[in-house]
Every structure is written in C-alpha cells, then in structure tokens.
Amino acid sequence: MTDADIARQATMQPIDAIAAKIGISADELEHYGKYKAKIRPRASDKPGKLVLVTAINPTPAGEGKTTVTIGLADALNRLGKKTLIAVREPSLGPVFGIKGGAAGGGYAQVLPMEDINLHFTGDFHAIGAANNLLAALIDNHIHHGNALEIDPKRVTWRRAVDMNDRQLRNIISGLGKSVDGTLRPDGFDITVASEVMACFCLARDLEDLKNRLGDMIVAWNRRGEPVYARDLHAQGAMAALLKDAVKPNLVQTIEGTAALVHGGPFANIAHGCNSLIATRTALAIGDYTVTEAGFGADLGAEKFIDIKSRKGGLKPDCAVIVATVRALKYNGGVAKDALTAENVDALGKGLPNLLKHIANLKNAFGLPVVVAINRFVSDSDAELALIEKTCAEHGAKVALCEVWAHGGKGGEDLARAVIDACEQGESHCAPLYPDDMPLVDKIRTIAQKIYGAADIALSDDARKTLTDLEKLGYGNLPVCMAKTQYSLSDDPKALGCPQGFTLHIREVQIAAGAGFVIAITGNIMKMPGLPKAPASNNIDVDKDGNITGLF
C-alpha cells in the first residue's frame, strides 16, 4: 500500500480525545473540524526531555527523517513515556514541486495527511498576508510623499507567495500610471523564506512576535540608514493577522500520539525548525518531546542549537541521527539506480559523512548521540553490521528502525536507546560560539568546525555588509548559514566528507527581527522553481473529494 492508502485506512480519534490524553480539556481547544485544533501556548520551568532528530546529508534516495521522528514518538509512548511530537508544517511549494507531501510515511504518519499538506489551519496564508501587508505599506508610503526618504532602489522587503514560481523572483512593480505606484525593482520569495516566518517561529509569544516584526529592516533611506517596519507602524496590524496562527496546531499520529505541527521556515535559508512556541508547549506537557531539524545535521542541528536553542532557552538531551544504507552508499559513489544491490565497499566510503555528523554533535555540541538506521528490505546483514561496528568504534549507539512498516513497534529498540541516552547520559549541549565573537569569525567557526572547511572566502560585498552590520550593533547576533543541503561543503556534488575546501560567502543579509545574520553561499535562492515534471502532475481529486497523488 502507498502512504496515502495507509493514512486513508487509519481510524482517527476525535481531537478532543487526543487532547484529553495529554491533559488538555475540550474547552481549551479551538476546533478546525473533528481532527484538528489550536491550543493555548504554554511553557514550564521543569520541562520534559527534548530529543532532537537530525540526519546525514540528504540524498535522492531519501532518509526518512520525519518518518523516524513520528515512529520514535509512537514507540516512546508504547514504552510508557508521555511523548509529544513538535514538527514543521509542509509548504505548498515543495508539495506541488519536487518533494510531494511531508507528513511522514508508512505506519508512522501524522494525520489528517491531506489537510496538513494542503492549507491546514491557514497559518502560512496568514504569514503571507502579513508579509504582503508590509510590502503594500512600504510602497504606499513612497507613493504618498515618502517622509522616511526611502530609496526605492534599496527596498529589501519582498512580497511572498507559498508556491514555487521562478517567474516572480525578479520583477518590476509599479508599472502603469503615476497613480499605480512607483516604478521600482521588486520580487517574490516563497512564504517559508519570509522573515515573517522566521520571526513567527522564534517568538516566545504574540507580544514578542509583534516586537520582532517591528524590528525587521525593510529598506534603506537615501542617507544609507535602515528603515524598520516599526517606522511604518506596521507591526500591530501584522500581529493582528497572526494572532490565531501563533497558537500551535494539535493533530495525531496513526497510533494516536499527540503532534504539534506548527510553522516551517526554509532550512537552508532560515533556521529550518518548527515554532519555538510549539516546542516549549510540548515540553511543558509531556515527559518527552521529539522534534526534528531541517536537512542534515550540518544545517539543521547546527541552527537548532546555535539559533533556536540559544534564543529559546532550550537544551536537547539527546540527538538522533537518521541514516540509511542506500544513502550512505550514494555518498560512497553508487548511482541512484544501483543502491539496492549489496556494496559493502561503497558503504564504507560513504560512512565518513555519518561519522562527521556524529563527531559534530558529540564533540562540538556536547550531545549524547544515537544513530537510527532506517531499514529497507534491500539492506544486507553485512552492510548493517558494518554501520553498527563503525559507529560503536566512534562512541555512538546504533538502533535499527522499522517504523515505516511496523509503526511504533518497529521503533522500540530506538526508543530504548534514546531513553538510555537521555536518562543515563548527560547532555552538555551548548552553542558553538559566544555571542560576542565577531561575525566573520562566527562564519569561519561554523565552516571549519562543522563543515570541515580549511577557511572561508568573502566577496567584497559580503565583507562590507558584515562591517556595516557590526557598526549598526548587530555583531552579537548568531549566523544563519544559507548553504546546499546535499553536501557538507558549498558544492552540492561534493559527497561524503570533503575536507580542506574553501567556503565561499557571496552575500550577507540581515534578519534583524528574527535575530540572525544570513551568510549566503553558492546558488541558494529564496524562490524555488518547479521541475520539468512537477509533483502536481500526479495530484488529483475525484468527484467525492478524495485526493490522490500527494505521496
């Protein structure tokens, strides 16, 4: 059966019953039908254990990180640990583009799958509306006399739409008559790349979100000074649009585990984690919270700790690195169409990618590590034995994971290893660098300690921007690296564990409201395009409203 078939055959419990399991009364819910609800954010001085699920660098073979996250939470509940999941909402762009749906897989899924992938509770639309309200206010201010002396050619705020549309990356707006606005260069980002999304996911509450929105730099005036959203009095109306969206969304897994699915910034442009509000809420309610970071540990886990944990007061108790035999063989040079054949030699050549991530999490961040091998039927005993032996030699526990086929039962070995790591081990998790380190040294530290680079090379523009940002008082912010997810380096074709390379920083941007500086490498963009045969080609709905092709 397909993932969609499995999801459709599952018997969902009313959301009131899911809420009751975690101590939330029906009166506290804001219902979106029978199976979805928003809940009141909360936090606790004595939170439960936090498990961070990350992975090796993603490959076309797929690693199943979200599937493992969901299955692990189900398994922890089976072992008597009150566990919640906190994960991201899918973006419509990837859903209709190349990725398809993003709600787990097999018997480890969050439900209702179709709703979560298509509109859900409208959070992303609210974020897009807030983004575009600000864009309209900027152009309206320029049209009505421009008292702030905004330079139309230095408006950095772009419009947003939650769809992959390369045609909108760079446009000229304000065409037509003088009453139709000021002619200027413009463009669109995908909604999940908007700074509004980053602010949304790093805010502690609605008031904090409103303040962050006001702190966003949207343009520069003719004197070269920053213009903030608060200068346009935009933050109040933007926060009004987001007052309901900021509440976490409660849904369920196939096995009835409570899942908070909320927020979702791009992982290679922003910090790539679900909302801080949802994570803190889950920690306040459960004994265990299982959350995930975007892409591989070099992007996702690093940003989770250096940005989200730093700002949100989080301290993961354990990290789970998801790997597959076939993905490691891909890193060892095997073509995608040959990954199901046994190839121990290629596996050995690909293992350094996994070992680098283990070393980073253990040594750079001080986290206990468990490796989850997401098992496929094509995996041979010899291949699995090599992974287990090699990981043991490097001080990492290994557990086979078969949650796609067996749900929580297939993740019990992994759950036991996680419980042992959380309750017997000790997390010394801390950020990689101090706040007061110069921005260029923060970039260099990430490049050398996490990626394995020899050094960094900055373009003249990037170097000047870093200098200017420190003069403006932003030197204490953490750095958000915008880099390919496919490699530890900035070259997507450099698989395995490249070493001694130079990481090239072509551009630096400021996300002052979100509270980080973005260092952009390679061909990273904020508006993806559709592939030649987009996933939307396979999506359909019948006369009874049944959707097909999302998975």
Quick take:
This protein has 551 residues and is an alpha/beta fold.
Name some characteristics of this structure.
551 residues; alpha/beta; Rossmann fold; Domain 2, N(10)-formyltetrahydrofolate synthetase; Formyltetrahydrofolate synthetase, domain 3; twelve-stranded mixed sheet
Gross morphology: globular
Q: How helical, in percent, are the residues? A: 25-40%
Instruction: Give the CATH class of the largest domain.
Output: Alpha Beta
The percentage of residues in β strands lies in 15-25%
Map the helices and strands.
Elements: H1 3-9, H2 15-21, E1 30-31, E2 37-38, E3 49-55, H3 65-78, E4 83-87, H4 92-96, E5 104-105, E6 108-111, H5 113-117, H6 123-143, E7 150-155, E8 159-161, E9 171-173, E10 184-186, E11 188-190, H7 195-202, H8 206-214, E12 217-221, E13 226-228, H9 235-242, E14 249-253, E15 258-261, H10 276-285, E16 288-292, H11 300-312, E17 318-323, H12 325-331, H13 344-364, E18 369-374, H14 381-393, E19 397-401, H15 403-406, H16 412-423, H17 439-451, E20 455-458, H18 460-471, E21 479-482, E22 502-511, E23 516-521, E24 540-541, E25 547-548
Parallel strand pairs: 3-16, 3-17, 4-15, 4-16, 8-11, 17-18, 18-19, 20-22, 21-23
Antiparallel strand pairs: 1-2, 2-14, 5-6, 6-14, 7-12, 9-10, 12-13, 14-15, 22-23, 24-25
Description of the molecule:
Its EC number is 6.3.4.3. Belongs to the formate--tetrahydrofolate ligase family. ATP binds at residues 59-66. It is an enzyme of class 6 (ligase). It catalyses: (6S)-5,6,7,8-tetrahydrofolate + formate + ATP = (6R)-10-formyltetrahydrofolate + ADP + phosphate. By secondary structure, the protein is of the alpha/beta class. The protein folds into three domains: 3-121 and 245-424, Rossmann fold; 127-239, Domain 2, N(10)-formyltetrahydrofolate synthetase, CATH 3.30.1510; 439-520, Formyltetrahydrofolate synthetase, domain 3 (Roll). The protein has 18 helices and 25 strands. The strands form six sheets. Strands 1, 2, 3, 4, 5, 6, 14, 15, 16, 17, 18 and 19 form a twelve-stranded mixed beta sheet that branches. It has a four-stranded mixed beta sheet with strand order 20-22-23-21. It has a three-stranded antiparallel beta sheet with strand order 7-12-13, with no helix packed on it. The N and C termini lie close together (11 Å). The mean pLDDT is 95.
